[in-house]
Amino acid sequence: MSPAQHHHRRELIAGLRALAAFLDSNPQLPVPRYGPVRVSVHPLYDTDASTEAEAIAEVERIAALLGTTPTVQHGHHVTGVEFGSVRYQAVTITQAAMERRAALESYCDAITLDEIEGA
């Protein structure tokens, strides 16, 4: 781990602790009610992985460190662990999955709904 990566890691951990302490000392502030708060690692951006295959391998490596099994569904490679309502996860989405999504969304402007009077 480079000195810059180590510094960023320490800053992130300090920020998470500061947030927890702040929320603990300000009980009048709302917190998310539904679903976990996620800390997501994206190997192509957050690690030294530079190819899709390396990113998938990194998700698998992280899974081994966490003692979890990655799930693969529709080109999404995901592993994670939960701490109450907080989830740490690693995610890689394949290029093919992103292209399928882009193709699907390319039709979004092809259909328009008539305005419903009074709505």
Please describe what this structure looks like:
It is a single chain. By secondary structure, this protein is α+β, with helices and mostly antiparallel strands. The chain has 2 domains: 1-31; 35-107, no CATH class. It has 4 helices and 4 strands, in the order H-E-H-H-E-E-E-H. The chain has helices at residues 3-25, 43-46, 52-66, 95-105; strands at 37-41, 71-73, 76-83, 86-93. A 4-stranded mixed β-sheet has the order 1-4-3-2.
Summarize the structure.
With 119 residues, this protein is of the alpha+beta class. The chain is built from four helices and four strands.
Q: Biggest sheet, strands in spatial order?
A: 1-4-3-2
Percent range of helical residues: 40-55%
Structural class: alpha+beta
Termini separation: 56 Å
Along the chain, the helix and strand elements come as HEHHEEEH
DSSP helical segment count: 4
Cα radius of gyration in angstroms: 19 Å
Mean pLDDT: 92
> Poorly predicted ranges (pLDDT <50, ≥5 residues)?
none
Beta-strand percentage? Answer: 15-25%
> Could you say which overall geometry the principal axes of the C-alpha atoms support?
extended
Q: Major sheet: size, sense and barrel closure?
A: 4 strands, mixed
Report the strand count.
4
Kindly give the count of domains.
2
